[in-house]
Design a protein that fits this description.
This protein is mainly α. Helix content is 64%, strand content 6%. Strand 2 and strand 3 form a beta hairpin. Helix 1 packs antiparallel against helix 10, helix 3 packs antiparallel against helix 4 and helix 4 packs across helix 6.
């Protein structure tokens, strides 16, 4: 009889050294990233501006809500303004998503004991490895994207004060950073980026694997999955699931796992965004690092500041990872390359 003390559910794909092919997974990850980020980028821009805004002298904020930020941005900058900074993001999202998704699969493949399922700890280690690998590409991409996205907020604030600020581009920002601080200038905020991405991947990938394994399977024999359900210390059940999950199951699983992980790491994302943002004026607070940013934000704005933009981030991440996982598991690259999935 099933007990209410269910403590563990472990899901894994049966490892096979001759089945795993890394190159098509990298290509699938790149395609998935481009499609996903193109669809959700305007929401990501709004999220960045909500997280980075500070109260004015009278205590008011430029944007009152996600919808207010969207409306004001669209009114001031038009349709293409909603895609400010998207060029660098779309360019770099290909290797970023390719590394993240393919690296997780590769680590799961290496960590899976022959003929045995991955434990939760090993799944979390695989996710941590994927998150750590991706920051090589993610940090410069996020830095340039955030500075481009925040440039519109800075320009709007300057206009309200009767000032003007010069327009910036991703190329000019990159040149300025490299010229003044060398290549390391592109890795400003790398500590916070690493904390966010590693933590996100530790939560996201195991959750996605378990949710994805619960749904209906394709009937094409595209894989063999073992689901181990431990009900008590003495009662365990093993279910064998034939075939990959149907596409809508991967989409829903990606959305659910992505939004949950996004909310969990939102405080780290707020810190990362502020460390990488443009300095607006001499009166604006500057941060020396992760701890300094945390303490100043907590002292000046309270704990709720760490969840600013959280709902918007969940709305961004949910479809982004839902779309990415769906495209990734459709196996477009395998079909093009003639590789057996």
């Amino acid at each position: 009889m099933a007990s209410s003390n269910a403590v563990q559910s472990e899901v894994t794909k049966l490892p096979s050294s001759d089945r795993f092919s890394l190159l098509p997974k990298i290509i699938n990850g790149g395609i998935a990233g481009i499609i996903g980020v193109t669809i959700v980028f305007p929401l990501d821009l709004v999220k960045t501006r909500l997280q980075n805004q500070k109260p004015g002298p009278d205590g008011s904020f430029m944007y009152r809500s996600m919808f207010d930020a969207f409306r004001k941005t669209y009114a001031a900058e038009g349709y293409f303004g909603m895609y400010r900074g998207s060029a660098v993001n779309i360019l770099l999202i290909t290797p970023e998503k390719a590394i993240k998704l393919a690296a997780n699969d590769q680590f799961r493949h290496w960590l899976a004991p022959p003929g045995k399922p991955l434990t939760l700890i090993r799944e979390m280690l695989a996710g941590a490895g994927a998150g750590l690998f991706q920051i090589v590409v993610t940090t410069p991409m996020e830095l340039l994207k955030i500075q481009m996205q925040d440039a519109g907020r800075v320009a709007a604030q300057a206009k309200l004060e009767g000032k003007t600020v010069p327009k910036v581009s991703a190329t000019s920002l990159a040149r300025e950073l490299v010229a003044s601080k060398g290549l390391l200038g592109l890795y400003r905020g790398v500590g916070a980026t690493g904390m966010r991405d590693v933590t996100f991947s530790i939560i996201y990938f195991p959750m996605f694997a378990r949710l994805n394994a619960l749904g209906p399977r394709k009937k094409d024999g595209s894989g063999i999955y073992f689901t181990f359900l431990t009900l008590t210390s003495n009662i365990s059940y093993v279910f064998i699931l034939l075939g990959d999950a149907v596409f809508w199951c991967s989409f829903v699983s990606g959305c659910a796992a992505g939004s949950s992980a996004a909310l969990a790491v939102n405080p780290i994302d707020v810190i990362k965004t502020r460390l990488q943002a443009i300095k607006k004026s001499d009166a604006e607070v500057e941060y020396k690092g992760v701890v300094d940013c945390f303490m100043k934000t907590l002292r000046n704005e309270g704990p709720l500041a760490f969840f600013r933009g959280g709902a918007c981030r969940m709305i961004v991440i949910a479809p982004l990872f839902g779309i990415a996982q769906t495209v990734y598991y459709l196996g477009v690259a395998e079909r093009i390359m003639g590789v057996k999935k």
